[in-house]
Amino acid sequence: MVYASQNLHHSNALLTANGTTPPVLLWLFFPPVMITFALISRAVAPEFYDTYVYGELGIVENATVLFLFPAVIMGIFATNYSRILDNRLITLWFFIQTLGMFYFMGEEASWGQHWFGWENEGIFANHPRGETNIHNTNHWFDQKPKVLVELWTIVGGVIVPLWLWFKGRHLNQPSNLWTWVWPTIICLPTAVIGLIVKNIERVREALHLSLPSPFDIRFSELQEFYFALFFFLYMLALFMRIRAVRTKRS
Predict the structure, then answer these.
(1) How many helices (H) and strands (E) does the chain have?
(2) DSSP string covering 99-132, please?
(3) Peptide bond into 70 cis (omega under 30)
(4) Is the pTM of this model over 0.85?
(5) CA distance 204 to 207
(6) Cα–Cα distance between 124 and 126 in angstroms, integer?
(7) pLDDT tens across 232-247, in order?
(8) Which terminus of the chain faces fewer neighbouring Cβ atoms within 10 Å, N or C?
């Protein structure tokens, strides 16, 4: 009993110790960089923006996939490591998150078509945009996942972290499901920026606004980037914490 209590105490401490939280430079100072870069490049070098920043092979689109790829890899490892917690719900949650990020990543890159340039044949022959993805063929594969991601970002990325911070509470018990479900405060800056970008695009489309340069950028691509960065930071924090618990217990 004493050993188990000590083991639980050490595990709890691990979840709040140095080395189990992503560096502040990554989660606090990095998130504004992409939107700042897009606005500045649009203002001072519009041709550069149109050629290298905007579009399916642009910097924003490729950066979205670039962050989702390691998030998927970390998700696979985290799902495997989570078995040490002996809680199937936690393992299932990790698996669902990883599967969702894999779908997000594949669809963003049209499963490689953007890079390798193959034709949309077979089941994709009548694709409205000539791509090998499914999110543009049916609203169930497009709008429904987007709504779920937005709700998850609002609740998990903003409301819960702020509520926990306001209450001075820390979810640091490895046996507690919510410790592994809710994002921590590190996801807040990215979530806020992503939701702002999302709603700028929403208002612009609803009111048919024509914004002046440099605010006439394609906010839809930026919102996808920020949601991808949100998932990356979320999974990075989970991976670092579950790896620390696994290392301590093994």
Answers:
(1) 12, 0
(2) HHHHHHHHHHTGGGHHHH-----GGGTT-TTS-S
(3) no
(4) yes
(5) 5
(6) 6
(7) 999 999 999 999 999 9
(8) N
